[in-house]
User: What shape does this take?
Amino acid sequence: MPASSLLALIDDIASILDDVSAMTKVATKKTAGVLGDDLALNAEQVTGVKADRELPVVWAVARGSMLNKGILVPAALLISAFAPSMIVPLLMIGGGFLCYEGIEKLLHPLLHRQDEEQEEHEERLEALADPTVDMVEHEKTKIRGAIRTDFILSAEIIVISLGTISSASFSKQVITLSVISVVFTVGVYGLVAGIVKMDDAGMILQRRGGLARSIGTILLGAAPLLLRLLSVLGTAAMFLVGGGIIAHGWHPIEVLIERITGYFINVDPFGPLLSAMVQTTLNGLTGVIVGILVLSGVGLISRLYRRVRG
Assistant: This one.
């Protein structure tokens, strides 16, 4: 009898872990846009920090990220337990914010003058070269800013993940959100640490001869390209994920997309592929339109606020 009970317990644990693994995979796919942007933004956050302080800054932000998730996960679970009807509205808000952030990044060259960015870059260089500048306070400012950014992105990840697993039992939600929080934090900041040290590794290898020198040259050239690629992929994924959330939560748009994709599903021999491509394109287009609308609304509110204050 004890043996059969133990085997039943082991079977239950294995079943729970299997369900958690499956839900984690689905949630990870849903949050791909936020994850890509999180990675790109945090890699950019250490710009302007001395090379020997890059890893300590990344570690400090990673600790802050875990604290953020330590606050957000219980809050999300409380919402799921006592106000589950709030999950869809929160998802829609998160999707709208993703679209807004994506369009803001896409239109950044038009919304911000190039001379402003050049001034910021020159100020960072001067701060690094000036021995009188308090770099400890400079680092603290960067860390606080990065943790605030992480809080917003982590909230999006947790809310989107919660929407994916809202039908699961409370215990599975707890385990899944905890696993996602740990895996995303370790994965993102581990990759950030690797990316920001690519140029240092490249310089070390360049001092050696032969193959090592060639690899070092490749790493030095790849580091800035990788950051740009992450930024582009992250922006595209914002529209796809955010638009998909809006389309799924807004029934008329969901029905319209289903009808359009339905025309392609039976086209031989690539019907399913064409249907998936069209759906992805329409989700992205929805994300762009929603982003423009939200950006316009934010701009209008900002102008009205300034007029009232002025």
